[in-house]
């Protein structure tokens, strides 16, 4: 009765068999003795399995077990036919695996129920069917899901598949297969126990995974799609996360091996001033010499520098970086230490303290220790150009820090200011996505302290120009018009609609749904899509509706129902920042995870505007500032080079007589 008013709008209905009947028919057809009938049935099953209602019905008939039996034993039955019917056999297996992947993606059945025989069979396809793209792709997808969803299955898959078997698939030309291969490697890496992770990283290094990815993926003559960029980002994060153990390890001042590293730093820096033999000079004399040298090396604690490395982060990682720099860039290391030891105390750039703070800063920039985001694809090609990319990154940045210190003519009181400038230099250089470490270095050369000052000055001037009282009054007058303009733009974007990716804790999937606002701003239309749309999606292809009048609230982040569920995905900070939900009726909800921050702002602003609430996103703030600035500049064009007073000019006195007034008539 509630929705009877919608009947007059009309709808085109298509008569079809029910999911339950379809499931029964297909369950029988895929067991047919006729190869052609079986092939056709599996093809239909692969297509229908995307629908969750059909999937539930088919799974209730124990359909998953039937498919796994066909994979485990059915393939042997057709081995003899394989030679004479190879295309048919390949298609049959491809449709079987496709149906299996689609059914499992609904999350109805647990992954823990599969046998070792099934895992062995899927793993064998990765080697056997390297030339059959569809079988290989589905097999890799199944292996990835198994590893991510079950600890027991991770152990079984890890025994069946080796990195050596996966590497050849990266050397092909099919980017989709390369993406799935890296996804499996990432899954194995992510789920490996802590004690096995470093061992796996060593195997990846031996197999030259980094250089293969650099040659065949990053520097291949084709664009990198979003899914591949995401997998490269995950690999980058997991690789840097190997540093977390050292980052969180405090130095033990009593550990002789650790103290030897500090001695080595001193030896390399002051090799010319070899320490005297034990026979000559007292212990006190040697201690005072060590203290003097440790002071020159820039440690805070001159007597016992080991105490400088007891703070975590960066812990022992800072000392590792310093030793790497001293050994692999010895000339630069000696130059920095000697340069600073010859300056006045207050003007020296303390190498030890700088290295510790810089290591901590680089760990924050690269988010060492954080889990990879499910939606981010922000990888840096330059980190794939060197086996010790983090250490090389540090070496470039410590030289930058020393250079910036000199340019700023800094003293020890300016230490934090220098670190802020260096962070800005690094962040600005990273946003340009340099393709190599050398390119990163040259970007930093162009971002000298003088250049940073110019950029800051330019940004400050744009702000300060508009702080006088008359300008502020003009701003207040114009602001409502600009906000209305932004509101209209947001609503127009909602009318165009956005494609959202369906995400779950099992794996990233190429499943999409679309949502758009009706042109009269009264109804939200939404529905599932087979693939990412090219262009606008018409309203009639979106089956579901939600009247705007029924919306009770829009919630974001941790308040979203889908962010309160348990699972690795839900704990991720970046996903939380992109999540929002529409609440309607008593318990109805429509859950979103925006593709990026821009779309998140557009949708939350648009929905708030529909509900008559303020648009509070960062994007609105930026747009308002930009448009206000442009509008004011346009209105003040006639006042170029004229000083605008802070106060209105005084009203002149009345004239002594009005003789100059005359009547025109």
UniProtKB/TrEMBL annotation:
Mitochondrion keyword on record: no
CDD domains: PH_ELMO1_CED-12 (cd13359)
Gene Ontology process terms (BP): apoptotic process; phagocytosis
PROSITE patterns (UniProt xref): ELMO
Keyword terms: Apoptosis, Cytoplasm, Membrane, Phagocytosis, Phosphoprotein, SH3-binding
GO molecular function: SH3 domain binding
One Pfam match: ELMO_ARM
Cellular localization per UniProt: Cytoplasm; Membrane
Superkingdom in the source lineage: Eukaryota
GO CC annotation, single: cytoplasm
InterPro entries found in the cross-reference section: ARM-like, ARM-type_fold, ELMO_ARM, ELMO_dom, ELMO_domain-containing, PH-like_dom_sf, PH_domain
Residue ranges of domain ELMO in the record: 257-430
SUPFAM superfamilies tied to this protein: ARM repeat, PH domain-like
Chain's role: Involved in cytoskeletal rearrangements required for phagocytosis of apoptotic cells and cell motility. Acts in association with DOCK1 and CRK. Was initially proposed to be required in complex with DOCK1 to activate Rac Rho small GTPases. May enhance the guanine nucleotide exchange factor (GEF) activity of DOCK1.
Name of the protein in its database record: Engulfment and cell motility 1
Lineage: Eukaryota, Metazoa, Chordata, Craniata, Vertebrata
